[in-house]
Write a structure and sequence with these properties.
The chain is about 75% helix and about 0% strand. By secondary structure, it is mainly alpha-helical. The chain has one domain (about 5-395): Up-down Bundle (Sodium/glucose cotransporter), CATH 1.20.1730. Helix 9 crosses helix 13. The chain is globular.
Length: about 475
């Protein structure tokens, strides 16, 4: 058994990092307009968008924290993932038809069309704020892996990954992001499968022994129909929470909407979104089973590792055969880089399209392209700073990341639903509703024990209800677009 990585492992990791960066740079010559840079010329096939969506919502958090979650508990998180699939169906029928009416670059142009410029700026600003905060936690998760694998300090680890990802995102735009996502998805899913097979060989008795021990310990439980509001992973919280979370994250968050807008048609966009749901179910099941297998291998409390998030990276470095351990570390870095590149491009696109171009519409294309790249650089530096600040955050990082993202999603989804489901809502009501929903979600996060799985649903209902009622109370017209 290897204890730590050797030269072969380091060579594989270095080869991956250099190779994926150079591959991403191949797309820089095609970036002539903002349509190319932010929407990849709207010429990406549905299957590539589907894999890119999967990669965008699969960060290092998922790969290291979901096995840790299963190690400590069981498979009930899959109920949330089932809700992810339900949310995709809702988006396909409720939101996507509106996105393909016109030539939209960001999700928040839809809000301007319905509620005016002020609400577009408000929703885009909330996206920038919360996406940056959530992404900071995700980038921090990279340092856990790199520090364990390479022995570098956590801050240096964050700097290495941020710099390499910035290079190809800065130059290649969304096309580079999507096509590197495709490669990275294959790498980290393939690497995880290799990891599963390797663990089977290491556990005496193989899968039958793992299955017997896990069954006896109740770790293979998927469904929990307990009518307890305060439990985060029941069937009810999972389906409702997962559906609302995904409807918000994939229907109102520029990170995913940008990919859906890059499709060749609405039909291809729907196909990409729904097929990504099937892939996500498979992927989360893979990571959860991995956690159960790690539990069967170690049979010690997760506290022995310091935190559950360290279990899988520690196993890779100390137990995997050389070569395979290097491949698996490269796979985890692949997920980290694909997620970070997606965040950088979406944050940049919203900054430029929702704010700069919005207020300076007559700027020439060359200036816009230069500012888009500078915006990408700015966000990379900011996310690096936020990740460093997150170094002292405790708890399972996947849940921290989901909590930070969920705080704004209810307010955003509520406003979008006000816009597309009712004709009576007005800008004043939408603004009051959005503020109310956001304040309620902050309150749920800081001052209550309400599970995060309910936050988006509650925030959406508050935003929609207050926004609708306020609109009926005060009649206004939509300001000029």
């Amino acid at each position: 058994m290897p204890m730590g990585l050797n030269k072969l492992d380091f060579a594989i990791i270095a080869l991956y990092l250099i190779g994926i960066t150079l591959f991403g740079l191949r797309f820089r010559k095609k970036q002539r307009t903002l349509r190319d840079y932010f929407l990849a010329g709207r010429d990406i096939p549905w299957w590539a968008i589907a894999l890119s969506i999967v990669a965008a919502e699969t960060s290092t958090l998922t790969i290291i924290s979901i096995p840790g979650l299963a190690y400590d508990t069981n498979l009930t998180f899959l109920q949330v993932v089932m809700g992810y699939v339900v949310g995709r169906v809702i988006i396909s029928f409720v939101l996507l038809p509106h996105y393909f009416r016109g030539d939209l670059y960001t999700a928040y142009e839809l809000i301007e069309r319905r509620f005016g410029r002020g609400m577009r700026s408000l929703t885009a600003g909330l996206f920038l704020l919360t996406r940056a905060a959530a992404e900071g936690v995700r980038v921090y998760a990279v340092s856990i892996v790199v520090a364990i694998a390479l022995g570098t300090g956590e801050i240096r680890s964050i700097a290495i990954i941020t710099a390499l990802t910035l290079i190809y995102t800065f130059e290649g735009g969304l096309a580079a992001v999507i096509w590197t996502d495709v490669i990275q998805t294959v790498i980290y899913v393939g690497g995880t499968v290799v990891g599963l097979v390797t663990i089977l060989d290491l556990v005496p008795g193989g899968w039958p022994a793992i299955h017997a021990a896990a069954t006896e310990a109740g770790k293979l439980r998927v469904f929990d129909f307990t009518p307890n509001f305060w439990m985060p992973y029941t069937f009810w919280a999972g389906i409702a929470g997962g559906a609302f979370l995904t409807t918000a994250s994939h229907g109102t968050d520029q990170l995913i909407v940008q990919r859906l807008l890059a499709a060749r048609s609405q039909k291809q966009s729907v196909t990409a979104l729904l097929s990504s749901g099937v892939a996500i179910m498979f992927q989360f099941a893979l990571f959860l089973i991995l956690g159960i297998m790690l539990w069967a291998f170690y049979h010690v409390p997760s506290t022995n590792f310091g935190r559950a998030d360290r279990i899988y990276p520690t196993f890779i470095v100390t137990q995997m055969p050389h070569g395979i351990s290097g491949l698996l570390i490269a796979a985890i870095l692949a997920a980290a880089m694909s997620n970070l590149s997606a965040a950088l491009n979406s944050l940049s696109s919203s900054s430029i399209m929702d704010f700069y171009v919005h207020f300076r519409p007559h700027t020439d294309e060359r200036t816009r392209m230069s500012l888009s790249r500078l915006s990408t650089l700015f966000w990379a530096l900011l996310l690096f700073g936020l990740a460093v600040l997150a170094l002292h955050k405790v708890g399972r990082v996947v849940e921290v990341g989901l909590q930070v993202a969920s705080v704004a999603y209810g307010a955003l989804l509520g406003v979008f639903l006000l816009g597309v489901l009712t004709g009576r809502a007005n800008p004043y009501g939408a603004a009051i509703g959005m503020l109310s929903g956001f304040v309620v979600e902050i309150y749920l996060w800081w001052f209550t024990a309400v599970p995060w799985t309910w936050w988006v649903l509650i925030g959406t209902v508050v935003t929609f209800g207050v926004g609708y009622a306020a609109s009926l109370g005060v009649k206004t017209t939509v300001p000029g677009s």
